[in-house]
Every structure is written in C-alpha cells, then in structure tokens.
Amino acid sequence: MNKSNLPRHGRALYLTTAATIAALYVVLTLPFAQFAFGPIQFRLAECLVILPILLPAAIPGITIGCFLANLLNPGNLGPIDIVFGSLATLVAALLTYRLAKMAPFKKLIINDIVALVPPIIVNAIIVGTYLTFLLTEGAIRVTMIIVNVVYVGLSEMAVVYFIGLPLLVVLRKAGLRSTKE
C-alpha cells in the first residue's frame, strides 16, 4: 500500500486509479442526490467500498470521492458532513483493506462479507450520529440517534451487499486481482 516504494509508472497508475475511483464516486452520487443524502441514504457510490479489497488505490479514491460528493451536495450539510463523512469513509476503507488481507476463512465469499462489515458499522455510527445533530431542530434524544444509526446502517448494508458484493464477484471474474494475491 506504500505508494512511495512503487516504480514511477506504478505511482502514476496508483494516482490515476485513485482519481478515477474518486470521479466515479461523485458521478454515482450527485445525480441521485435525493436518495444519497440524509438518514435513509441509498448512495449508489457506496457499492465502491468493495474496491479496497482489490485495489489499495481505492482507499484514497473513495475517500476523496466522498469528500467531493459531500462538498458538492446540492443540500450541503456543511463542514461536519464533509469532514466526518470523509473520515468515516477513510477509516472504513482502511479496515476493509486490512480485513481483506487477513482473509481468515477458507471460503472467499465469507472473507468478502466480513471485509465489508466496516463500511456498514463505521458509517452507521459516525454518519448516523452526526446526521441526527445536523438534521434535527430542538432537543436531541438518544432514541433519535439510535434510529438514525440504524437507518444509515441498513441503507449502507443494502447497497454494499446487494450491489457491491455482486460487483466484486464480477470484477474478480473479469480478472481484477485481490491485494492478498
């Protein structure tokens, strides 16, 4: 994952891949903004969280893509969403990458399912919590936070497992190699 050890053409490929993934994330988010932001968010671009399993360059790619999508959101929620949403994506991508490299199970699909848990948990907790404060007027109750955490988690899980996981299978069949291989 240390791109400074790559030969010059490897660094260029790493940066190009990261930039392409960032652009793809934005393109898959902004046209569907009405579904991509809020407590119940079906952000199609979140299917790309599978990419750190295959490509280390996806870590900065989806992080920058999330940053740009939150920054350019037509209903911009401000710096908290931009910064903490991007940090949640970064942490989830790093954990996904690490879990994919560990691959403790014999069946590849089980390893993939486990490696894709961090985006669901991290986004549910971080994004679900701060959205409660950004979108609620008046007093905040713990139950409101819990409800938003559950909504964000279920939304994320739907996109990750129903779109992202099949995408991962297709990418592998197309010959994209895992970071562990």
Q: Overview of this structure, please?
A:
The chain has 181 residues and is mainly alpha-helical. The chain is built from eight helices and no strands. The longest helix is centred in the last third of the chain and has 32 residues. The chain is globular, with a radius of gyration of 16 Å.
Highest-level CATH class: Mainly Alpha
What is the first-to-last residue Cα distance?
Answer: 13 Å
Helix and strand run: HHHHHHHH
Number of domains: 1
Number of continuous helical runs: 8
Round the mean pLDDT to the nearest integer and report it: 92
Helix content: over 70%
Looking at the overall shape, the CATH architecture is: Orthogonal Bundle
What key attributes describe this structure?
181 residues, Arp2/3 complex 21 kDa subunit ARPC3, 0% strand
What's the structural blueprint in terms of helices and strands?
Blueprint: H1 8-29, H2 33-36, H3 51-54, H4 58-72, H5 79-102, H6 108-115, H7 117-135, H8 142-173
Helix pairs in contact: 1-4, 4-5, 5-6, 5-7, 7-8
